[in-house]
Task: structure prediction
Amino acid sequence: MPQRTCVACRTTEAKRGLVRVVRTAEGKVEVDETGKKAGRGAYLCNSRICWDKALNSKVLEYALKTAISMEDKASLRAYAATILDSDE
Result:
């Protein structure tokens, strides 16, 4: 089973247990639900703490080697709000 590391908390987990965020060739940053989109990817846990840390610091930008636009950050926050439990 392929293992990946969350860029925020640095824990290792099965690839399917993490959410992939990808920087496309056009420079757009988006969630890759299939895990197969072309582009540079980074993985995050399904944890509010990890998503907040990744979006509020430079850790995700560093992993993707790009600055994340405010529009892309807003769409990532919206996606995170739909899949995450706020109690985590």
About this structure: The chain has a mean pLDDT of 91. The first strand starts at residue 3 and ends at 5. Residues 70-83 form the longest helix (14 residues).
